[in-house]
């Protein structure tokens, strides 16, 4: 009986916000929302990890996207954490799938329009895909910055 | 007769009718019911001739409607008093026996007054409305924010909230959000007072993130 009550309570418990399917999201968005790929974090202090943190001030959503790059400049792992609507979650989830296996320069070419097209985002949700593109760019910029400061400290070490 | 007398009392008490006229504003359209010229005013207006309730103005200044100074600092008690007296005057229950048009107008007034009260009461919406009145362009959906220290803080509170499993940790987060909102409200007040609208806009964008967190926290607290 108690178990039954607990199950009932779980069913009644509202999710934060309406379920995406109820809002008429495309099934691809719902799929990423329900089975997000690559959720989590990488070590932001690691020298071969770039972290991009972006926010959408109009709606208050935040998105973190991280990439791990090997010595050949290839992205070997990617993770994201997004607190936002279904489209924002799906866009960042898809972005992590797409950057994996690409080089840094290839990943820079990913456009928000590609993400929006793949997820069939309606015009009012285009900004979610823009946020994902910005997050990729921010993560790669952070990685590059770390690499440069790495090289500089190597140079200093050589000169010393 | 009784209804008319009551309305007259209300009108006098609220003092809409003559205040606007004294300020000499341009006359609007005449009474929809009897065609008489109408008194000017910021709140809901009744025709002096036939007592009919008039439709709300198309885009009223909510500060004037709620009888508040156009300022970020607001007297919440006065706002609430004004809200109640306006709602008493136009509440749809009062118009049950009146023509359908008046019933419709009373609903429109009532919902406008609710909206105005909520917008002016909440610091975030009040600030955004003030910016709108000052002609400052609102934050665009496509704007991207990259103050990473701030975003990191928001990310961390979001994570804490997602992981919170008991009342205590939820309460801790609730207090944190409240403190942050109070701090930001103070900063926004100062920014508006020195007329630094761009700074006010930035601070209000930060408030939006906390408002978002507050909504999520409330959603999480409902089942308990």
Task: Describe it.
The complex is a heterodimer of chains A (160) and B (224). Chain A is an alpha+beta fold. Chain A has helices spanning 2-12, 27-34, 86-99, 104-107, 112-119, 126-159, and strands at 49-56, 61-69, 75-83. In chain A, strands 1-2-3 form a 3-stranded antiparallel beta sheet. In chain A, helix 2 (27-34) crosses helix 3 (86-99). The termini of chain B are far apart. The radius of gyration of chain B is 22 Å and the shape is elongated. In chain B, helix 5 (100-121) packs across helix 6 (123-133) and helix 6 (123-133) runs antiparallel to helix 9. Chain B is built from 9 helices and no strands. Chain B has 224 residues and is an all-alpha fold. Residues 16-24 of chain B have low confidence and may be disordered. Chain B: It is found in: Cytoplasm; Mitochondrion. Chain B: Its main location: cytoplasm.
């Amino acid at each position: 009986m108690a178990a039954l009550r607990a199950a009932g309570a779980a069913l009644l418990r509202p999710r934060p916000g309406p379920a995406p399917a109820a809002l008429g999201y495309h099934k691809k968005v719902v799929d990423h929302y329900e089975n997000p790929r690559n959720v989590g974090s990488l070590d932001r202090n690691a020298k071969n990890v770039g972290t991009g943190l972006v926010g959408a001030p109009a709606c208050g959503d935040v998105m973190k996207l991280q990439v791990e790059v090997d010595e050949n400049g290839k992205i070997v792992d990617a993770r994201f954490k997004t607190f936002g609507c279904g489209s924002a979650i799906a866009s960042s989830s898809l972005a992590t799938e797409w950057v994996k296996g690409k080089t840094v320069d290839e990943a820079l070419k990913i456009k928000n329009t590609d993400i929006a097209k793949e997820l069939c985002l309606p015009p009012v949700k285009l900004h979610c895909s823009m946020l994902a593109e910005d997050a990729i760019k921010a993560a790669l910029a952070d990685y590059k910055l770390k690499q440069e400061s790495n090289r500089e400290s190597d140079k200093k070490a050589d000169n010393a | 007769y009784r209804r008319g007398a009551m309305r007259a009392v209300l009108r006098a008490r609220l003092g809409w009718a003559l205040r606007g006229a004294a300020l000499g504003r341009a006359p609007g359209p005449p009474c929809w019911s009897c065609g008489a010229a109408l008194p000017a005013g910021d709140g809901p207006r009744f025709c002096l001739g036939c007592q009919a309730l008039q439709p709300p103005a198309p885009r009223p200044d909510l500060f004037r409607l709620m009888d508040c100074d156009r300022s970020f600092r607001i007297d919440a008690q006065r706002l609430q008093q004004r809200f109640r007296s306006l709602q008493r005057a136009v509440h749809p229950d009062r118009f049950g026996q009146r023509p359908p048009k008046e019933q419709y107008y009373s609903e429109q007034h009532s919902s406008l007054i609710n909206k105005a009260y909520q917008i002016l009461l909440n610091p975030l919406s009040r600030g955004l409305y003030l910016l709108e009145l000052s002609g400052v362009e609102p934050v665009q959906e496509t704007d991207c924010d990259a103050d990473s220290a701030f975003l990191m803080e928001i990310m961390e509170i979001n994570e804490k909230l997602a992981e919170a499993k008991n009342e205590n940790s939820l309460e801790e987060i609730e207090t944190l959000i409240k403190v942050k909102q109070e701090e930001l409200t103070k900063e926004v007040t100062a920014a508006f007072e020195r007329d630094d609208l761009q700074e006010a806009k930035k601070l209000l964008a930060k408030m939006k993130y906390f408002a978002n967190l507050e909504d999520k926290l409330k959603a999480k607290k409902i089942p308990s």
